[in-house]
Design a protein that fits this description.
Number of domains: 1
Distance between the termini: 104 Å
Radius of gyration: 33 Å
Order of helices and strands: H
Structural class: mainly alpha
Number of strands: 0
Family: Belongs to the V-ATPase G subunit family.
Protein name: V-type proton ATPase subunit G
Number of helices: 1
Largest sheet: none
Pfam family, one: V-ATPase_G
Keywords: Hydrogen ion transport, Ion transport, Transport
Subunit structure: V-ATPase is a heteromultimeric enzyme made up of two complexes: the ATP-hydrolytic V1 complex and the proton translocation V0 complex.
Shape: rod-shaped
Length: 76
């Protein structure tokens, strides 16, 4: 009778181990998905920042080139 209980206990442990493996695998998959999402969002933010800086730079460059072409009497 004890050998039957022992077999059932081993089977329970194996089942629990498989379930734990599935839980860990699901958690890893979810973590990777969150990290990919965070990376994508960060890249989008960086691109927006670069675009904004480029616009500001172009505005400054065009402002400087406008003052260079104006006669001194118009700059004041």
């Amino acid at each position: 009778m004890d050998s039957l209980r022992g077999q059932g206990g081993i089977q329970m442990l194996l089942t629990a181990e498989q379930e734990a493996g599935r839980i860990v695998s699901a958690a890893r998959t979810a973590k990777l998905a969150r990290m990919k999402q965070a990376k994508d969002e960060a890249e989008k933010e960086m691109e927006e920042y670069r675009s904004r800086l480029e616009e500001e730079y172009q505005t400054q460059v065009s402002g400087v080139s406008n003052t260079e072409t104006k006669p001194a009497s118009e700059i004041s």
